[in-house]
Specification:
With about 250 residues, the protein is an all-beta fold. The protein has two domains: about 160 residues, Methylamine Dehydrogenase, Chain H (7 Propeller); about 80 residues, Immunoglobulin-like. A four-stranded antiparallel β-sheet has the order 3-4-5-6, with no helix packed on it. Strand 11 and strand 12 form a beta hairpin. The radius of gyration is 20 Å and the shape is globular. The protein starts with a strand and ends with a strand. About 5% of the residues have low confidence.
């Protein structure tokens, strides 16, 4: 993995594992999921995946969990206090603090005998899975609740490999279980706070709908001092409830 200093343009590397494919920042640590070498390339040796934890304060590896030599995970995501990842046609979940890997899958998805999960994401507390099938015919998109209950299934285009949440909902959103939270101070010039004692996901949009901040809320608030003065919208999500607050940055 390469680390680029945007001020000096200096590049340093951190050796993690074979074929790193996804990474997540959580509470000051960077988690890198490596798929390992699948071994189907002629002359190559199969290696298992790794989940590597890096301390962002000094870029040192503080923890590493090895998968079996024949296991090749991908699509690392985080929701609440749990990691989610895919392997073959299965989705797995583990507590962030756990130092061991799950022995059974959380759910199995898609076409039997297919190549496996191709697209994966967690959006607003729902799990989205893309099944490419045979990579020739139309694929399938599945939507699950966070506890693994199938909610919807769609026939989509060939090889669905990603999901995107449109920011258009900022203007006139119909909230489900609307949150009763406040934001303060408003107007704000430095740090924005919200009145919630639960983990909240906060996205801030400018008036054009462009996302300018996207992070999990902590007690230290959200620093907006780098944003140009103007009007913004803060979308706050806790579990399946959300609301949008207009804020003014001075």
């Amino acid at each position: 993995m390469s680390v680029i200093n945007p001020i000096t343009n200096a590049v340093t590397t951190i050796t993690v594992g074979d074929v790193p494919n996804s990474l997540i920042e959580k509470d000051g640590s960077l988690y890198v999921l490596c798929g390992g070498n699948p071994g189907w390339t002629p002359g190559s040796t199969q290696t298992g995946g790794k989940l590597v934890k890096i301390n962002l304060a000094d870029n040192t590896i503080t923890e590493q969990i090895d998968f079996a030599a024949t296991e090749h995970p991908s699509n690392l995501e985080v929701y609440g206090n749990n990691f989610y990842y895919t392997m073959g046609t299965s989705v797995y979940t583990k507590a962030i603090t756990s130092t061991t890997l799950p022995t059974t899958s959380f759910l199995t998805v898609g076409t039997p005998g297919a190549y496996g999960v191709y697209g994966f994401d967690i959006i607003d507390g729902k799990i989205y899975v893309g099944d490419a099938g045979n990579y020739v015919n139309p694929g399938t998109a599945f939507v699950y609740s966070i506890d693994g209950t199938l909610l919807k299934e769609y026939t989509v285009g060939v090889s669905p490999n990603g999901f995107y949440k449109s920011p258009q909902a900022v203007n006139g959103i119909d909230d489900v279980n609307r949150l009763t939270v406040s934001v303060y101070p408003n107007p704000v010039s430095d740090v924005l706070y919200i009145t919630s004692d639960k983990e909240a996901a906060v996205k801030i949009f400018d008036v054009t709908g462009r996302v300018v901040a996207n992070e999990l809320y902590t007690a230290s608030g959200i620093n907006v001092s780098a944003l140009p003065a103007g009007t913004y919208f803060a979308e706050i999500t806790v579990e399946n409830a959300r609301t949008v607050k207009q804020i003014v940055v001075q």
